[in-house]
């Protein structure tokens, strides 16, 4: 299951919240059809001839939820571009088509989507008066399209909501969007939420939303077979299927040509990747499919192909100057060969997201996670023994069905015992269709959930400070992503191999590839930074030199060899 449930909004600076608008009465006079048409034409926004609106209309998009949703929107934009919908605008008031890509993991995310849908309904329902007052610049009432997990989960409710939405399209049906939009022109509402056992969009070249970014997302698999009792993902995203390795390599090669220096490999259960596209024979169910020691799985593998370690091996060897990260994994799919590969390859980042969800074995059993507290801690110990300098992050849910104070305290002690660099902490939100919804009672009161969540946050903050402080005095390789927003004229910001945010002064420094040159680092440079201080969220340091991934790794190997002599 993908995590990092930060609500990502693309260009919302001009968008209004539901609480800040009041629909005005229609301002156009009630005259004859011809006169009304002429009046309306006179009210339409005057466009520069060089910026004529294409007949298909302009697209505005918003995305909520995980990185997978961001990548899905890039796939949608590519499909739409190939169908002739090429122009994207930065505000919904200027769009003839509005896409909202949704998240169904928690109720809070859904409520924010409903607020935005109310505003989009206002833009559509009161289009004439909005044009008359200058609020809207669209050439016709916008078509509102709901995409993603919420589309699959609440399709009937969305379509029944007072003509608020024109198209509802699930995660596996994006190729059908041009046809669904055409149906709206004929007075129909388009819907396709069918889940697929094959769709991976492997042949689609995504249209990157952040065109100048040196980082990018690449989806390698879709769906999830784990059926954790709290999770809606298998019901909104379907079963697991993986892209062929070759299609992933081609996409990464294109990104490298575009100047991308770091790729995040995505999947709902990314490390269960299984490219069986070249495998014709069936294998005995589950044979040779190694899991982390002490972990089990409800899902059985029918055809075993290339695994996640094979994919990482190929990518890291073919693109030695590109960094690779991945999310979101399941702890059960960390066999030893994957851990040893991560240790050996300098361009596979030493950050592992290891979702625990809870520290209680009894709650883990109710959650159907397939492991115990002890097995999880053993895996943490193994990871740190193989990759000594690894950073760990995790997800935790408090207030799951039946959780007692003792079970909650076991989660607090697990956080202290592991010492995470990052964590994503949530109060439980029951989802319909899940195993928990069918079999358990959401019996922990909301005020207790919130109190437990506050305790999780405080416990995490106490331990993460130690993780950040341990980096003081070290030299980290930082990929420059842009200026520090708080000091854009004087400081740069980037991420270290461990995913820590690092800030440093922008000043001329040596370039190790040209010893006679000093220059200011730019976005996309790898910079050696000596860490001098830390907070619980950032590292601060002194930039030493501009370098390359392989050069930095070679220098570390030489230093290690010298120390061992």
Automatic annotation (TrEMBL):
Stored SMART domains: Elp3
Any Pfam family hit: TRAM
Gene3D superfamilies: Methylthiotransferase, N-terminal domain, tm_1862 like domain
Co-factor(s): [4Fe-4S] cluster
Keyword Iron-sulfur assigned: yes
Domain Radical SAM core: 210-466
Gene Ontology MF, one: metal ion binding
PROSITE patterns: MTTASE_N, MTTASE_RADICAL, RADICAL_SAM, TRAM
Highest taxon above the source species: Eukaryota
Residues of the MTTase N-terminal domain: 57-186
Domain TRAM: 469-545
GO cellular component, one term: cytosol
GO biological process, one term: regulation of macromolecule metabolic process
Record's keyword terms, sorted: 4Fe-4S, Iron, Iron-sulfur, Metal-binding, S-adenosyl-L-methionine
Family recorded in the similarity comment: Belongs to the methylthiotransferase family. MiaB subfamily.
Protein name, UniProt field: CDK5RAP1-like protein isoform C
